[in-house]
Model the fold of this input.
Amino acid sequence: MPLLSDTPRCVKCGEPLRLSRLRVDSVSCVCWADNHIRPFPALLEPEAKVADEIVGPNGQVSTCFAHPDRAASSVCSVCGRFACSLCSVVDSGRSLCLDCFAATQEKGNTRRRIVRWDSIAISLAVLPLLMWPLTCLTAPAAIFVALTHWKPQHYGFQTRSLIKLIAALLVASAQIAFWIAVLANMDPK
Amino acid sequence: MKSTCRKLFGRSTFSYQQIYLDQHELLIIDGTYTEELRRLPYRDMTAVIWTGSSAYAIVNAVTGLLVLIAGTAFLSGASTRFAHESLSGGEIFGMLIGLPSLVVLIANLAKGPTCYCAIRTRVQQVKLNNVNRIRGVKKLLKELEPMIEQAQGARSLIVELVRAHFEQAEARKEAERRAAIAAKRGPPAYDPTIPESQQRALRVPPPLPIRTETLPPLPGEGA
Done:
């Protein structure tokens, strides 16, 4: 039986939708928004199906390593611990527990958060052009950021080019050249 | 190793979100300078929800009005100008405001109605900021449905099953609520469906008043 707290919520106001009033594919919210919904079978089974391999010969069900009150739904392919649907993460087809997933993240195989140094470098090079005197400070900073992070950043499944870093270097170099020219032509008096 | 990921939605004008389809999960990258990756496994997806937004009508109304005003200004400027004169103020205004507005209006009409869209999983609801057109939702469902059906099974009669399940859940919750209220109140004072003989047994006598004044001594008691 699904829990009412698991019900999909209105995309506009966030109130839980009354799916008992579902007609064809739409249901109205209290905010009058007509929410269209495409439900899937998992909506009727809040708990993941228990895998065959973790049901014992007498039919007893193994429980999650971290949550003893929840049935295990998978086995970690690295450490072999039982994990419930909340604790298991599927990564490239492998089922991992949260500890092993965190360990793979630390190794850099599956990163979860990255700082986009190429976006920072291009912003440092381009945005200060709106207040151009600032470029004497930001252009060297852009070059520093671009050179210290000269490596395409990605999550393992993407291929990202160095185009932003190259553009940042070119724009910042042009700005520095401009400042050198200004200083060189400056009257010493 | 070659990645099996495929980009479904890239960054748009007002959203930095990117959506990728993998073999087992949907990958969502969100953020500008610090990006975060979310993995939504197909086996955990419970629903895709979307609702129309008013942005389409508002953009059409505003750009349509601007095109109308700029067009009128352009035509009136052109009609009052002599052949040898340069462009009049009305014509310049018409071209500067009218043409970009016309481009935005045509692009908006071509892209179709706008909407808000979200994916619900067993543990969270994720808003898809760059799926903001009904056409985009159709594309998302076209790509996503076969993957989810492969992970969860076919969704035949799912609407009827969902409705029945949630009707039952609501009925059970309502019954529990009524039972809790009834337990709080005590038995009902009078219920016509219960025979009179049982009504007396159910009836609770009112509590006796507490007397606070001191009672006179009984005969033979005290001094």
